[in-house]
Amino acid sequence: MSNLFPITTIRGSKPGPDGLIIAGVHGDEYEPIRAVVQLLKELRNTLLCGSLTLVPIVNISAYLTASRLGEDGLDLARTCPGNKSGSITEKVAHEISNLIRKTDFLIDMHTGGNLFDISPLSGYMLHPNLEVLETQRAMAEAFNLPIIWGTSPELNGRTLSVARDENVPAIYTEYRGGGFYPEGITDLADGCKNVLAYFGMLPLEKGVSKVALIIEDNHPGSGHLQEMYPAPEEGIFVPEVKLGQEVKREEILGHIWDFTGKKKTDIFAQQEGTVFLIRAVPMAKKGDALAGILSSVNKD
Ligand SMILES: [Zn+2]
What we know:
By secondary structure, this protein is α/β, with parallel strands linked by helices. The chain has helices at 30-42, 60-63, 88-102, 130-143, 159-165, 183-198; strands spanning 8-11, 14-23, 49-55, 105-109, 116-118, 121-125, 147-151, 170-174, 213-217, 235-239, 246-247, 252-257, 264-268, 273-279, 283-284, 291-294. It has six helices and 16 strands. α1 links the parallel β2 (14-23) and β3. It binds zinc ion (ZN). The site of zinc ion has 5 residues, from loops. It comes from Cyclobacterium jeungdonense. Keywords: Hydrolase, Metal-binding, Zinc. It holds the Pfam family AstE_AspA_cat.
């Protein structure tokens, strides 16, 4: 039991994999939190084998301020593996990293939080160990969200970086944001159960695949959502595209208006592809991400 966040472990009657499912690494991402609570209710006495550890809210100090960041101003997903005697976010990072090192697989569920709307997707790092990578690909496929996105493995500070260093197969998910989407609770809980079935921990129910787009992009920094289409200046963001929209190069994604309403700066698509991330609020500081595009063809 942790003093820093709630942990529940459910055990099957036979030996098997030990899995870890977590939500609330960021305090303003609610569908995953609700999905883990649903799993806590649904999965009791149902596991065929192994064990499943569920953490519905990793980052309580961020949750209690409805914020992405902890009360010390740190982003837990940039602070792993943390520090046992550091600030609150560093301590939480230390403790969740210890759990991740002990598990056989990890699912870490996110949303775009207060600021972003993101197309539902399952992501993983393009792990140098082929066995780990293949397991991650299978987990993402089983989770069954419309987009599968493998990205560059070099990013640090994340739960997935800790898993990477320990050769623990790990996926993360994104599911909308900038509002609450109740259908996300079911989609995410079902996704987790599909992955448990893949590992033999629940009966396998073969459903219809919803996967529509699989992209693997090994460019350095490819998985860094907060750096996409940075605002050229501070202002009021007005999007001109919708999630899932196909855009061409040079198409207008949106505008930044200055506070006098006189100056409009156009934000142009720099690549052809599918819009999968849009800033969900007008507030934009210089450098804040405004939009994200997934291209099936790599630029290099
Ligand atoms: Zn998050």
